[in-house]
Amino acid sequence: MSKFKKKQAETKQAVPTSAMPDVVFMLLIFFMVTTVLREVELQVQVQYAQAENIQKIEQKRLVSYIYIGPQRLGNNRLGETKVQIDDTLVDDMGAIRNIMYDKIMEEPRLIVSLRVDQDSEFGIITDVQQELRHAGTLRINYSTLREI
Description:
This protein is α/β, with parallel strands linked by helices. 29% of the residues lie in helices and 25% in strands.
């Protein structure tokens, strides 16, 4: 028998959790900032035309969409051709100039993407293009489907 006994260390190997709420809060803020909460609710119907030569826009944050097509009335009925910017229908073509001028002043690199129904009247599309030209939004894109 030995006179000396080996002492065992009585320390516990616990993981410190005092910083856990800070990490969780930072992750929550990160996901709130980077997540898109909702998309635009379409009030017009858009069936894209098909095209052969398509180029994809990489920076979606620099794109503002204008929808042109027949207004959805409910019960699968369609009305006359309307223009929608963001969530609102635009009745006065002159308002397009003001709305887009404000957007281009806020973000000079803005690209305007026209999402036009394939059966829309060309006169309305021309009017929208003229208002965009007067507003100084010269970077215009037409959204289409790839031709199969």
